[in-house]
Amino acid sequence: MEIFLGAVKVHLILSSVAVAIGISICVPLGIFLAKTEKASLIIMNVVNIGRIIPSLAVLALLMPFVGIGFYPSLIALTLLVCPPILINTVIAVKEVDKNIVEAAYGMGMDKARVIRKVELPLALPVIITGIKTASVEVIASATLAAFIGGGGLGVFIINGIAGANASMLLVGAIPVALLALSAEFILGGIEKLTTPPTT
C-alpha cells in the first residue's frame, strides 16, 4: 500500500508541476505572441510540428541530454503540456472582440490593464480548455516516465506488462484513468464557471 501511495504521489507531482510550469511559461508567451504576428506564425508552426512527436519519442530524445530520473521526466512532461496551452492562449487572445479592447483603451486603460482586466478574462474559458487538454494528456503521458526512472504509476503498468500480471497492470492503469477523468471533470467545471452566459 505504501509503495502504491508513493507512486500516486510521484505521478501527481510530475503531472501537476509540469502543468504549473507550462501555465507560467505559455500563458504570458501566448499573450505576447497573439500581439506579434510574425513571431506568432514562426513559433506556432514549430509548436504544431512538435505536437506530432509521440510522448515516448520526446522522452527518448531528451534522455541523452538530461539523463534519467524524476527531473528529466519533469522536463519532458513540461514540453508535452506546452503546445495545447500555448496554442489555446494565442487563439483565445486573438479572438477577443477588438471593439471591446478599443473601448477599454478609450476609457484610459493602459496596455497592462487592458490585458489584465479585459483580454485575459474574456480569453480565460479557451485558455482553460487548453489547460484541461494538457492536464489529461500529461496524466496519461506521465506513465511513460517510468521508462526513464521517473517513477509514478507507470511502474506498475510496465511491470504488469513485463510479467504478464494483469492485476499489477490494473493497479497502475485504473488510478491513471481516474486521475485523468478527475482532471477533465474539475477543469471542465472551471471552464463552465468562467464562460460568460449567452443571451
Describe the structure.
With 199 residues, this protein is an all-alpha fold. It has a single domain, classed as MetI-like fold (Orthogonal Bundle). It is built from eight helices and no strands. The radius of gyration is 19 Å and the shape is elongated. Residues 8-187 form the ABC transmembrane type-1 domain.
Task: Give the helices and strands, then pairings.
Elements: H1 2-34, H2 37-51, H3 55-66, H4 70-94, H5 98-106, H6 111-141, H7 154-162, H8 166-194
Helix pairs in contact: 1-2, 1-4, 1-6, 2-4, 3-4, 4-6, 5-6, 6-8, 7-8
InterPro entries: ABC_transp_perm/SBD, MetI-like, MetI-like_sf
Membrane topology: Multi-pass membrane protein
Protein name: ABC transporter permease
